[in-house]
Design goal:
There is one protein chain. It is built from five helices and five strands; from the N terminus they run ββααααββαβ. The protein is an alpha+beta fold and 152 residues long. The longest helix is centred in the middle third of the chain and has 33 residues. The model has no long low-confidence stretch (mean pLDDT 92).
Length: 152
């Protein structure tokens, strides 16, 4: 499976997802992590995403990518994306949910898809709080499904 078919959050510091990276690399003929960092900011923070950016650059250029590197990048990406979502929930979502009498009962993160099950009777305001905060604080390219436990 190509790296491009795995839509995911690549740069957790800057909230840059893989579809935007592939598009920018092709459109701007970007060939290095430094060029990507200058164009999008991705790779210019902590540096943890730089191997994954290198993988994307190689794939777009038609260079072979070591399957071991791909597996390692996938594992890091999964862990770091979930951590970024959990941080955003702890910092900005939970305090707001308490204000409307709601809480998160379950969380699932798969690539750019985040599913949140809210407490029974949480209502649309709680779902909006979750969606808005995750899109703002983690990545604008996330697909956030926040639903009431009664809807599940």
């Amino acid at each position: 499976m190509s790296s491009e078919s795995r839509a995911r959050l690549v740069c957790r510091c800057r909230g840059v997802a893989s579809p935007r990276l592939f598009e920018a690399v092709r459109a701007g003929a970007l060939a290095s992590v430094a060029e990507v960092a200058k164009a999008l900011g991705a790779g210019g923070g902590c540096g943890l995403c730089q191997p994954e950016i290198e993988e994307i650059l190689a794939e777009v250029a038609g260079r072979p990518v070591d399957p071991g590197v791909t597996l390692e990048n996938e594992a890091i990406c999964r862990e770091e994306t979930r951590a970024a979502v959990e941080r955003a929930i702890a910092r900005s979502v939970q305090p707001q949910l308490r204000g409307v009498g709601a809480r998160i009962e379950a969380l699932a993160v798969d690539g750019l898809r985040v599913r949140v099950r809210l407490s029974h009777g949480a209502g649309p305001e709680a779902a909006r709080i979750v969606r808005d905060a995750l899109l703002r604080d983690v990545c604008a390219d996330l697909a956030v499904d926040a639903s009431d436990a009664a809807d599940a």
